[in-house]
Amino acid sequence: MGLAVGGVGGWLVQAFPDISSNLIAAAIGGVLVWSATNARRRLRLLRARRFWRALGGRRPFIVLGAHDFGPHRRWARAGVVGMGDIGALVEIEAQLRKLGFAGKIAESKQLSPRDLSSDLVLIGGPVANAVTRTMLAKLNGVISYAFADDPDHEAAVVHDLRSGRVLAPQYDEAGYPVSDHALIIRTPNPLAPDKAEIVIVAGCWEHGTAAAAEKLGDRKFLRRLKKLKHFEVSVETTVVNGAHYSTKVVEIREISAE
User: What are the b/e assignments for 101-140, b being 16+ CB within 10 Å?
Assistant: First the structure.
């Protein structure tokens, strides 16, 4: 019995250095993993904060459009907002809140002339959002992308004014979109260029709008924008059963100050 106890004790004495080494190695590994994860998180937040700092610090209006379906408006007199646009609103509001900023949510028809000269985050294209339509008209000649009517569908297409190329959603046999295009634009507010900025996230359909909003939280995307103050970006996303996937950047173009 004594020999058994002694044997166990001797084994513990001999094994203790190995056990200690393993515990120390595990602790160091855990600290390194935590440090790397924390560093990546801080870098991601730093890039996001760099993007939103000016607008977020001034509490911008986050502006939704509301579709008006003519005689059907009686069912929703305030207008109808697409689920993709609501998703974009939730995404942008969450990004701002994570960084300690806040926005003021408003519907496009609620903004006063004074509000229009403020910092604005515009959700939805010119068909859905009247303020987006106004600002894109004011930016004519400044930006190199534009929305145009799609004669075959109740939506829009993106027109590349430089190349003449048309970036159009694709549809299945039933007429539902299976891909969508969108624009992300950041410029001085054309109604108050010296004191305010606007960010536009706008798709041909609401799927593109939601995808564009999510891109603003993508660290790799933000890294590509770090040297650009004002820019326009075209993105494309795949649509499956009404949800968007695999959003990719088609092109990033700087908007030069004049």
Answer: bebeebbbeebeeeebbbbbbbbbbbbbbbbbbbbbeebe
Gap between the Cα atoms of 86 and 224, Å rounded: 27
What is the spatial distance between Cα 201 and Cα 182, in angstroms, rounded to a whole number? 7
Q: At what angle do helices 2-57 and 83-98 cross, to 10 degrees?
A: 110
Return contacts of 24-30, CB within 8 angstroms, 24+ apart. none
Question: Most confidently modeled of 35-39, 182-186, 239-243?
Answer: 182-186
Lowest mean pLDDT among 9-13, 54-58, 84-88, 105-109: 9-13
Report the alpha-carbon distance of residue 47 to residue 41 in Å, rounded: 10
Identify the DSSP state of 12.
Answer: H
Tell me the β-bridge partners of 143.
140
Residue 216: how many CA atoms within 13 Å on its side-chain side?
31
Note if the pTM is more than 0.90.
Answer: no
Q: How far apart are CA 34 and CA 80, in angstroms?
A: 45
CB contact at 8 A, 180 and 56: no
Helix ranges (H only) for the chain are 2-57, 83-98, 113-116, 130-138, 206-215, 219-224
Q: Nearest-5° angle of CA 148, CA 182, CA 160?
A: 50
Domain range annotation of the chain: 44-254
